[in-house]
Amino acid sequence: MFNSISMPEFDELYRKNKDIHIIDVREDDEFASGHIPGATSVPLSQFPTELDKDKSYYVICHSGGRSSLACQQLAQNGYDVTNVMGGMSAWRGETE
Question: What number does CATH give the domain 3-90?
Fold first, then answer.
């Protein structure tokens, strides 16, 4: 099981702590077209992946569907993950 967070809640959290761990599961071309500063690209097509199980992750995609699938898979493997609902389509902050 994993948690979910709305984009407004995530935005508030991100503004307070830019050192949170963000996994962007969109494909490489989508990531290259703009992503949240500090996000790590791990395309869903490259799952399963190995991450540090001592960290908590916020998982994002374009709208929340792929990130939900990634969260389900990661949570089943013992990771602490939170799905960012709305994804990049709801992000209003800066991008890289």
Answer: 3.40.250.10
